[in-house]
């Protein structure tokens, strides 16, 4: 089958290519690739993680968002960490005593990745479950040579209260045996093998997700967490449910933008597009000082509402219709046009970028984007004999009661994840997805603008310089900095120049476009990362 698949890991994307060549559709290719990403970058995703996906199934016409965010353990309580706070960190994050919300068993939310992959493959895939997992099993078993980019991410130094990745990967003897078998983290050029994980995946390929959510795997995990002071029990697995909904939709210049729901960032992308729709962006021109000012103000407006409203809708009232309404966008446009200050409370910077993504589309019009993660970067927890890392998504919750993002049993935290599919006359023509915390949503946003408003190819769109504005200053990629600096300073903006021309700080967009009616599909991997792209003709 003809198709395109893009993701940040070359080892994983080749598996997607092979799935297409064997007759699989876009959903098959994406799921197989996503499993392989857990080996290619094991600190970013695994079946111990969480995320969200959007899928368009051409044959049935079904169009769904499947949220598989981590849920706070049922034993957790709103105020359980309020007396452990050391200080507030950038991005509305918190440093706690002993880093218990970042590293170790207490930092882990109940994972949903395995359940979601099975759900979407079983609904819309062509190939067997075992055939989709087998390539990842083989990769984990035979291993691969560690590339420089992977090693650099493993030795990333923590700062501002965050933990060092290399220390997290050596959290205990079990994780150390995988990532530092000789006492130090494996280096560029060395062979990396995940034997235990290959055996775990082998069992899952036969028994399916019930092995974790109803069976022996869940019991093993619960027993280990109990032994080490964690909160996750077998009941957490039994009660875990996916959220499956239609995407929220809005019109932008004749295109239908389809986005994920809260606590994801789809509503914010739609809101910001609605604000910018009031301007002739093509006439203003990409990268001009005037364009950068409007883009930064519209981004800030979205972050104001994010701070006010974004939360798990099962626990808090989230006024989605208001946020994505055209009238609300006009309210913000008036503020921007009047040069009024836009102040974003408590959101001055952003968290890490240890997440991953995959986008895929085939000749029949099937389209899927999956963004999945272990957090920032992960908990360091590996259960003996299972071989995979667990997430640390508890660290994104507010440790104090009474906040929309406070801890509650079974609650999901807020996230920047926002896989987006855009339709033209009911046919998918743009897919965007990215890792990169809250920069995900501004990167997806700018990619969409680049394609629709600035007539860029998909490769130009993901490569073009970006800005990110969510608080007191505007982060600007080096290629754009000097062009806009003087004008932006006059407008009262505080500008922070990136050290790099292609900076992974600004998220790694992996996008696909389709030429409606001509069956032409093109993909692009963001040059800010090592990137993988595969096309099967």
**What count of helical segments does DSSP give?**
19
Backbone structural class? alpha+beta
Shape: globular
Mean pLDDT rating: 94
Keyphrases for this structure?
six-stranded antiparallel β-sheet; alpha+beta; 18% strand
Task: Summarize this structure briefly.
This protein has helices at 10-21, 26-40, 113-124, 129-142, 148-154, 165-168, 173-179, 195-207, 210-213, 216-227, 234-239, 266-276, 281-284, 289-309, 320-323, 326-337, 439-452, 458-463, 478-490, and strands at 3-7, 50-56, 63-68, 85-89, 93-96, 144-145, 191-192, 243-245, 248-252, 255-259, 355-362, 367-373, 420-424, 427-433, 467-469, 474-476, 495-497, 510-515, 520-525, 532-536. By secondary structure, it is α+β, with helices and mostly antiparallel strands.
How would you describe the overall organization of this protein?
This protein is an alpha+beta fold and 537 residues long. It is built from 19 helices and 20 strands. A 7-stranded antiparallel β-sheet has the order 8-3-2-12-11-1-20, with helices on one face. A hairpin with a 3-residue loop joins strand 4 (85-89) and strand 5 (93-96). Helix 1 (10-21) runs antiparallel to helix 2 (26-40), helix 1 packs antiparallel against helix 4 (129-142) and helix 4 runs antiparallel to helix 8. It is globular and about 60 Å long. Mean pLDDT is 94; it is low at 348-352.
